[in-house]
């Protein structure tokens, strides 16, 4: 019967809902399809108009260029003026040209004509005299078709199409004509006129998006035209009519669904109400008979109540006296059971309507229950009484009370432990006496005020309580308290849920212990395992763990909550517990820091000095991080900072201040003063970051670039095309370097070192003194500066091979020109720090010097001051070995390392080259003047000659002469030239 009613209640409304839904959805789909077809037709029509307009524009400009070339004068005396006049006239008549360029027959830009205003250009008069390649287009002499290229100008932030052709392929002496078009401006004007705001479109060429309006939505309405030619490039156009903000079909479907649901719901409620009315009485009877309580209904008569209805369980509950009690009134029944006082309570319920409930002890031996729970409520004019047998519960409570004393005696004697009982609401209602020995509070005080003494609860408190609510035992957890004397204490609780026969939680019991000492020991072990013992910062292991957690949070849009204090409180627990999901994401920034000149301090003053420097530097770093940032020492002199939830702009402001602080810092040890710096690689941590390893590698590379750019600065790594271009450029230079070592791809240059205090008439008689310079010859890009390939060679361990190539090929050049050797006093060859510390390199150089016909006294090896100080013992051995063969030595870049003159005293060198940073501004800077004076005087007092680098003008040379500096080197005295030219010029001069 019930199944039949349910079928009627749900089947009819469901059928009605489905029918109405079908009608409305069909109408909505029809309207949407009609609107989609109209949008496609509009987009197709406008796209064709745009294509035709662009083709007409392109055809007119290309034809104008052909006309200009066909009318080119054959015998015009001044072709540039003629071209300028014609170009300006053409650009005035036909808009769109950004520039017209005349390139002469030699391939050099002869003239650039640009419009007066309105269109941006990447080609201007600064290119006059430069080769055609500077335009971005290299035109063949023989091509009869226009050649073109698509370029992007960073300065103009626009795309440009450059087209060009030889003016007459049959007469190449006329040169070339090149035209530039500002694509962005042209398309903005033309498409703005043709296409309204109701269309989204995108115009592409050469895989680049040249113009776009709005976002194309892939809903089947995008119209894409076949590629067409515009200014000699293939263009593709995609267009889409914008969707109306009012989607009629969708609105009809939504309104229809809502109306269908409403009509069906109303029908369902009417049917359900009718069925429920007929079933309510049957349900009541079924529930009454299934109840585990005795249910009795009493009807009032005069001053008493008579039983009118009782369920079957009441006969079971009052077994033994059921037949006696049934004919009695309520007053007689209560007297029979010894509960006379309860009759008055029942009358109050009937009069006032306030329910009554009580637990009563039954002393009659006529019925089975000894304890009952009675509830009386008013039911219309009647009263309803429910009676439950609670004898077993009260027996259990009595037994529990009897065993309580025995239990208390056992638990009160426990040392540093206590047992407890909590309510289902987790309020303490009993703790043993051990609590007073641990916290100093009495058991009663602790139960009443426990929440006041709590200092920190577990992060997983909610999960613990859910586990207990399910009747399951949770894992032990720790709560931090403050003792009576203010001492912080940690107590570990082990809860056990107590449930009744029905599985309902009635209490929580457990045992707790004081784990303060164990936790302190664990935190100490955790700290030692995760922190650097020298600086107290996180170590490499802890940094890697935290970095991976940060990456997981970043990828899962998790933002940390809490601070370093919270981290220290959780101790040995995983730091991930202090993080929780949030509804937003913010990036972080990692900084890889390598200390500059740390090895100089370590090697010159010993490891205790290096340790002292690292401690002081770490103190500076701490001043620029906050509680949520991560600061770690990950290597000898390498540190990492992760600025949490800060943008790159915010971090660079911190780094600017940090670098200033490090620049102003002076490290003093044993009366020695050192300047240090920090090279910092900076990289963002965001959702696109792949892995911790890739992040550290990129930051390390950025740190190296900062060192390469001059140290004590930061370099920001950007994972984009420009960064990839930089890396590709370095790879190309490295490839050229390897190729040069294998195929003699280097070229030797030389620059004279001129005497400053020799009269002019005697200079001609002086023997030449010059320094060997090295250039890397790349076939495609010409000579590569040493400033590019020398750092790469040092980084990849190739510098000793480069040095050996220079030594060997310098000697070969001199050996093949014996006449030149007679005119040479000294040939200076630079050696790197890697070679200076390489015993095998020393052996090879010594062997080469012993086998050459070039006198050893004509060779002078230059080594830098910083390299010598860093490898002092190796430098002394290197110098003494080659000096025994007759070679001389020069100490290069002296003063740049700010080292002590004591090293100069202990080094057997012949020349001291004063660093150019002091020489460059000696005319105007009194401090530089005093520095050069001091270096020159001290060097002379030690019997060494001095050479001033970077002599940029005659005024600088005059000052150096006044200071009695022996030699000068710089562009004012001699410019670098190929060694072969210098050797051949001297040979020719001698033969003449």
Automatic annotation (TrEMBL):
<feature type="transmembrane region" description="Helical">
    <location>
        <begin position="12"/>
        <end position="31"/>
    </location>
</feature>
<dbReference type="InterPro" id="IPR000700">
    <property type="entry name" value="PAS-assoc_C"/>
</dbReference>
<feature type="domain" description="EAL">
    <location>
        <begin position="730"/>
        <end position="990"/>
    </location>
</feature>
<dbReference type="Pfam" id="PF13426">
    <property type="entry name" value="PAS_9"/>
</dbReference>
<dbReference type="InterPro" id="IPR001633">
    <property type="entry name" value="EAL_dom"/>
</dbReference>
<keyword id="KW-0812">Transmembrane</keyword>
<feature type="transmembrane region" description="Helical">
    <location>
        <begin position="246"/>
        <end position="267"/>
    </location>
</feature>
<dbReference type="Pfam" id="PF00990">
    <property type="entry name" value="GGDEF"/>
</dbReference>
<dbReference type="InterPro" id="IPR035919">
    <property type="entry name" value="EAL_sf"/>
</dbReference>
<dbReference type="InterPro" id="IPR052155">
    <property type="entry name" value="Biofilm_reg_signaling"/>
</dbReference>
<dbReference type="InterPro" id="IPR035965">
    <property type="entry name" value="PAS-like_dom_sf"/>
</dbReference>
<dbReference type="InterPro" id="IPR029787">
    <property type="entry name" value="Nucleotide_cyclase"/>
</dbReference>
<keyword id="KW-0472">Membrane</keyword>
<feature type="domain" description="GGDEF">
    <location>
        <begin position="586"/>
        <end position="719"/>
    </location>
</feature>
<protein>
    <submittedName>
        <fullName>EAL domain-containing protein</fullName>
    </submittedName>
</protein>
<dbReference type="InterPro" id="IPR000014">
    <property type="entry name" value="PAS"/>
</dbReference>
<feature type="domain" description="PAC">
    <location>
        <begin position="472"/>
        <end position="527"/>
    </location>
</feature>
<dbReference type="InterPro" id="IPR043128">
    <property type="entry name" value="Rev_trsase/Diguanyl_cyclase"/>
</dbReference>
<keyword id="KW-1133">Transmembrane helix</keyword>
<dbReference type="InterPro" id="IPR000160">
    <property type="entry name" value="GGDEF_dom"/>
</dbReference>
<dbReference type="Pfam" id="PF00563">
    <property type="entry name" value="EAL"/>
</dbReference>
């Amino acid at each position: 019967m019930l199944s039949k009613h349910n079928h009627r209640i749900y089947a009819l409304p469901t059928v009605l809902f489905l029918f109405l839904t079908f009608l409305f959805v069909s109408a909505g789909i029809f309207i949407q399809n009609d609107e989609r077809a109209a949008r496609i037709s509009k987009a197709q029509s406008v796209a064709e108009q745009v294509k035709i307009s662009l083709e007409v524009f392109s055809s007119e400009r290309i034809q104008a260029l052909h006309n200009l070339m066909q009318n080119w004068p054959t015998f015009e005396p001044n072709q540039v003026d003629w071209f300028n006049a014609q170009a300006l006239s053409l650009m005035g008549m036909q808009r769109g040209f950004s520039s017209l360029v005349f390139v002469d027959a030699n391939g050099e830009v002869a003239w650039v004509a640009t419009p007066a205003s309105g269109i941006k250009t990447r080609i201007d008069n600064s290119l006059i005299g430069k080769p055609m390649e500077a335009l971005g287009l290299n035109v063949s002499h023989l091509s009869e078709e226009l050649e073109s290229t698509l370029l992007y100008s960073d300065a103009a932030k626009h795309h440009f199409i450059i087209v060009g052709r030889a003016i007459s392929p049959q007469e190449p002496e006329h040169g070339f004509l090149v035209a530039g078009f500002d694509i962005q401006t042209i398309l903005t004007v033309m498409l703005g006129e043709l296409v309204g705001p109701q269309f989204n479109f995108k115009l592409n060429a050469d895989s680049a998006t040249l113009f776009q309006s709005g976002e194309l939505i892939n809903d089947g309405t995008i119209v894409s035209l076949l590629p067409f030619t515009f200014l000699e490039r293939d263009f593709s156009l995609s267009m889409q009519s914008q969707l109306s903000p009012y989607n009629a079909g969708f609105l009809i479907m939504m309104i229809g669904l809502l109306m269908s649901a409403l009509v069906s719901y109303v029908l369902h409620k009417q049917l359900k109400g009718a069925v429920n009315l007929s079933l309510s009485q049957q349900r009541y009877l079924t529930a009454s008979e299934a109840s585990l309580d005795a249910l009795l209904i009493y009807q009032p008569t005069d001053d008493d109540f008579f039983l009118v209805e009782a369920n079957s369980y009441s006969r079971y509950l009052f077994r033994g006296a059921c037949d006696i009690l049934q004919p009695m009134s309520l007053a007689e029944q209560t007297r029979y059971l010894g509960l006379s006082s309860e009759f008055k309570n029942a009358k109050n319920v009937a009069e006032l309507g306030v329910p009554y409930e009580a637990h009563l002890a039954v002393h009659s031996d006529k019925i089975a229950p000894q304890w009952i729970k009675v509830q009386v409520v008013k039911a219309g004019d009647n009263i309803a009484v429910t009676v439950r047998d609670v004898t077993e519960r009260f027996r259990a409570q009595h037994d529990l009370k009897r065993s309580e004393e025995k239990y208390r005696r056992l638990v009160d004697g426990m040392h540093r432990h206590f047992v407890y009982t909590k309510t289902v609401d987790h309020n303490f209602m009993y703790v043993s006496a051990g609590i007073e020995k641990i916290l100093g509070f009495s058991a009663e005080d602790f139960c009443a005020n426990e929440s006041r003494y709590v200092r920190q609860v577990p992060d997983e408190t909610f999960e613990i309580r859910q586990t207990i609510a399910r009747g399951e035992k949770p894992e032990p957890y720790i709560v931090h308290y403050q003792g009576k004397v203010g001492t912080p204490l940690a107590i570990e609780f082990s809860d056990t849920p107590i449930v009744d026969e029905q599985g309902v939680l009635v209490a929580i019991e457990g045992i707790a212990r004081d784990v303060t000492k164990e936790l302190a020991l664990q935190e100490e072990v955790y700290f030692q395992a995760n922190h650097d013992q020298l600086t107290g910062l996180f170590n490499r292991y802890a940094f890697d763990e935290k970095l991976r957690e940060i990456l997981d949070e970043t990828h899962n849009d998790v933002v940390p909550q809490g601070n370093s204090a919270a981290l220290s409180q959780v101790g040995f627990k995983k730091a991930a517990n202090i993080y929780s999901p949030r509804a937003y994401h913010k990036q972080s920034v990692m900084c890889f820091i390598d200390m500059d000149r740390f090895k100089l301090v370590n090697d010159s003053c010993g490891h205790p000095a290096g340790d002292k420097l690292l401690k002081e530097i770490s103190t500076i770093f701490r001043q620029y991080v906050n509680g949520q940032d991560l600061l770690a020492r990950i290597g000898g002199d390498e540190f990492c900072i992760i600025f949490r939830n800060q943008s790159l702009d915010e971090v660079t402001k911190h780094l600017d201040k940090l670098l200033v602080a490090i620049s102003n810092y002076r490290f003093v040890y044993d009366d020695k003063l050192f300047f240090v710096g920090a090279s910092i690689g900076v990289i963002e941590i965001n959702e696109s970051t792949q892995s911790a390893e890739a992040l550290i590698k990129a930051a390390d590379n950025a740190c190296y670039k900062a060192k390469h750019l001059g140290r004590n600065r930061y370099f920001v790594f950007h994972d984009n095309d420009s960064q990839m271009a930089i890396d590709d450029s370095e790879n190309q230079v490295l490839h050229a370097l390897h190729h040069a070592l294998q195929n003699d791809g280097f070229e030797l240059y030389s620059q004279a070192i001129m005497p400053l205090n020799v009269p002019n008439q005697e200079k001609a008689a002086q023997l030449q003194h010059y320094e060997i310079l090295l250039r890397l010859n790349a076939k495609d890009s010409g000579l590569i500066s040493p400033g590019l390939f020398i750092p790469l060679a040092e980084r990849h361990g190739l510098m000793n091979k480069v040095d050996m190539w220079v030594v060997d090929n310098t000697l070969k050049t001199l050996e093949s020109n014996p006449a030149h050797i007679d005119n040479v006093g000294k040939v200076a060859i630079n050696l790197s720090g890697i070679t200076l510390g390489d015993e095998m390199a020393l052996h090879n150089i010594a062997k080469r010097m012993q086998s050459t016909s070039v006198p050893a006294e004509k060779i002078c090896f230059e080594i830098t001051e910083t390299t010598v100080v860093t490898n002092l013992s190796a430098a002394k051995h290197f110098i003494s070995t080659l000096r025994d063969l007759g070679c001389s030595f020069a100490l290069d870049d002296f003063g740049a390392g700010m080292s002590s003159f004591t090293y100069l005293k202990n080094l057997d060198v012949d020349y001291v080259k004063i660093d150019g940073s002091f020489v460059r501004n000696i005319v105007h800077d009194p401090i530089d003047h005093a520095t050069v004076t001091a270096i020159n005087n001290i060097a002379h007092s030690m019997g060494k000659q001095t050479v001033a680098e970077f002599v940029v003008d005659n005024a600088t040379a005059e000052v150096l002469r006044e200071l009695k500096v022996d030699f000068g080197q710089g562009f004012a005295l001699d410019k670098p030239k190929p060694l072969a030219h210098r050797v051949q010029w001297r040979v020719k001069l001698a033969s003449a």
